[in-house]
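Appendix B. Chain record.
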Amino acid sequence: MPYPYKKMTQEDFDKIIEITDNERVWVGDEIAKEYYKDEMPEYGVFPPELYVEVLNKEEVSEIMKYAYEQNIPVVCRGAGTGLAGGATCKYGGIMLSVMRMNKIFPVDHKNQTITAQPGALLIDIQAAAKEEGLFYPPDPGEKTASIGGNVITNAGGMKAVRYGLTRDFVRCIEAVMPDGFIMNFSSNVVKNTTGFDVKDLVIGSEGILCILTEVTLKLLPAPTCSSTLVMPFRSLEECADMVPKVLDLPFVPTAIEFLERELIDIVERSLHKLFPVKHGEAVLIVMYDASSKEELDRAVEAAAEAALENGALDCNIAGTPERAASVWEVRGAILEGMKADSVAQEECDVVVPRSEIAEYVKQAKKIASAHGIRVEPCGHCGDGNIHTEMLRGPEMSDEEWKKATHESLTELYALSKKLGGQLSGEHGIGNGRLDFLEEFAGPRMIELYKSIKRAFDDKLILNPGKMIKIDEN
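Structure tokens predicted for this chain:
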């Protein structure tokens, strides 16, 4: 067994500098504390022994060969925007940053694909596709996330209801194995039944199997027109009940999101981003893309009629890009607003069948409130991914907050399971949800997970202690 991992020495530091460059290596107290954690420090703050910024796959390969030989743990880090404590050095060792590997190659129009290194930002990939009249649909709220992080966590986001997850757009992957071997998973083909589809196993593996060094992504023709509707309701339950009615219409929405008025007020008050619809205790936001104005008008008209027939106070059409942007800007600022309006945050990132959204939301509010926690559900209700945001007030002690959130999470995850849901919709397991995974997956599945981990990483050096627990003795 690999435990305990090797404590790094000056000889190890010198070797990494030899492979890379002294200007791109930091050791011990030289390492900025922002690299000890991701966007959820509640899920662990762990200092690496060495932080290195790599420039190419050859450097990644050489570092991994050395780490494998010396039994040194390695954690790959992108932009650090994760929300599950995934990209943290739980056992010290090397933090390997790929953010300087950020090249985006020219769009391949014949195959309608784009290839990028893992440190390229999602927003830049979307922009590069748009310049060529094409469209990369996955749209998680954090646009400054790296594409490698998106792939390795199988990011979803607001447009998943129509277009799917990141997995649905990955054609092929180049990656470095824990022993330093450079592998290619699939190629730039539309379909592939050649052996096991290891590519899809790597997507969403949270950095515990290999280090992604290049990815080729499928693109779509850009929609020519788009419209956003805001449907205010008297209650969150009425709002959630509208979701299946929108999905029953003969037009597939691009996104369906819900927000409570209190969340909107938090963003307006804390960040001064104004929401254009001022009434309703909850709002349903529905977006449609189309290839013609006629098609778009039919979709918007059908949705508006359905909303008014099912209890909506109104149906506001954000008809201009500026007005639509103001709606989505508020939706995208939820996490930032909550951070500004509370002492600490905890998130339950469950996904439930769409038919159970209203029941989950209703019960979730009761559960958290019973433990003295302020709770704000919001989410991608087109795919049942509900972000149950718990906010800590200044009156709660550290011990009270820790106890209340743990008890709330235990009950919320049990509720999700009871309703036929899953533990995480898009943020993954990381370090933050380790204790809850086996209850969902079952012991036989956990053993399968462990077998897969060992098949890729027999020394367990790559992002250890994340996603699954493996005995350390």
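Further analysis of this model is presented in Appendix C.
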